[in-house]
Write a structure and sequence with these properties.
- This protein has 317 residues and is mostly helical.
- Helix content is 58%, strand content 4%.
- It has a 3-stranded antiparallel sheet.
- A hairpin with a 5-residue loop joins strand 2 (186-190) and strand 3 (196-200).
- Helix 1 (2-12) runs parallel beside helix 3.
- The longest helix is centred in the first third of the chain and has 24 residues, at 36-59.
Length: 317
């Protein structure tokens, strides 16, 4: 219920600006199963675009511009306006991605008969390599004695499972108990677009999960019931924010000075597997990437690390 209300709020951001855009956002929510964060991002981009069209209309009241009537010349003026505002290449590329999705929807629904972005290329985004932890850093976090309290056992299990599976933190905290198959050594999670995928886990994660489910979780629930695998001392599901803070504190206790996030463990999972011979296709399936080009970024990480090792250790590096 809460998620549905939040999705409605995201759609309401654009409401009364353009009914066609509202239809598009409802389509993304209901038929495509897009997340609240994705809807909010699309709504923000489209609100900006609608504001630009309104400004264009004010400059020429005799020729109002509706979204379905937008042509290449208006799109080029919009992109020029974005650049003059100092938007980064990444932000402009994201905006263009949003608008391409919108115009695909408009053509599919018969609202438009053309694509004003057909011959407009997205700006080249600089390659940003994901930040990863060295294996020793990961081991220092995993091997840290976190205590015997139920909450400490839960925290230890969550960190172990995150590194063992490469889940997104949102997927980790939303795991239901019945997502696990500990005997077979895998779990089922729902990723972006509500797509299900099977992710294997190792024996360390399986062992810690059995210990957590057998004693720590019942102690946290105190007789209450919950479908959530990981629960707080109040018996509610763990939040992303609570896990993020716990992980950062654990990393500091383990002697890691750099800023750490849950996504760094996901990146480390992928990078360490690739370094040890995993193929990209298998890695793509485990990470839940829709496009293998997203997974290929980790090959750049591996190459960058090899170059760094070579420079550091070669006598003529």
């Amino acid at each position: 219920m809460h998620a549905a209300l939040t999705q409605k709020n995201a759609i309401d951001r654009i409401q009364a600006v353009d009914p066609i855009v509202e239809q598009f956002l409802n389509h993304l929510s209901v038929e495509k199963g897009r997340s609240v964060n994705t809807l909010s991002s699309y709504a923000q981009d489209l609100k900006r675009f609608c504001a630009f069209l309104k400004k264009e209309h004010l400059s020429d009241p005799a020729s109002p511009i509706e979204i379905a009537q937008v042509r290449r010349k208006e799109m080029l003026r919009f992109l020029s306006a974005l650049r003059s505002e100092g938007l980064s290449a990444s932000s402009v590329a994201r905006m263009l991605s949003t608008l391409r999705s919108l115009f695909r929807f408009l053509r599919a629904e018969g609202h438009a008969d053309h694509d004003p972005l057909a011959k407009i290329d997205s700006p080249q985004k600089p390659l940003r390599l994901p930040k990863v932890l060295h294996l020793k850093e990961v081991e220092s976090i995993l091997n840290l004695n976190k205590g015997e309290a139920p909450g400490a056992i839960r925290d230890d299990t969550m960190i172990e499972l995150l590194y063992a599976t490469g889940l997104r933190v949102s997927e980790l905290v939303k795991l239901p108990v019945d997502a696990l198959n500990l005997e077979a050594g895998y779990l089922i999670t729902k990723g972006k677009g509500a797509k299900e995928r099977i992710v294997p886990m190792g024996q360390c994660a399986q062992g810690k999960l059995k210990g957590y489910i057998g004693a720590a979780r019942p102690a946290l629930l105190k007789g209450r019931t919950s479908n959530d695998l990981f629960v707080s001392r109040l018996g509610r599901g763990m939040s992303r924010q609570a896990f993020w803070k716990m992980l950062a504190l654990t990393a500091r206790k383990a002697g890691i000075q750099k800023k750490i996030s849950p996504h760094m463990l996901r990146h480390s999972f992928a990078s360490h597997l690739l370094e040890r011979g995993a193929d990209l296709r298998s890695l793509q399936l485990m990470l839940g990437h829709a496009d293998i080009s997203t997974t290929q970024i980790y090959t750049h990480v591996a190459r960058a690390r090899l170059k760094k090792i070579h420079r550091k250790h070669h006598p003529r590096g």
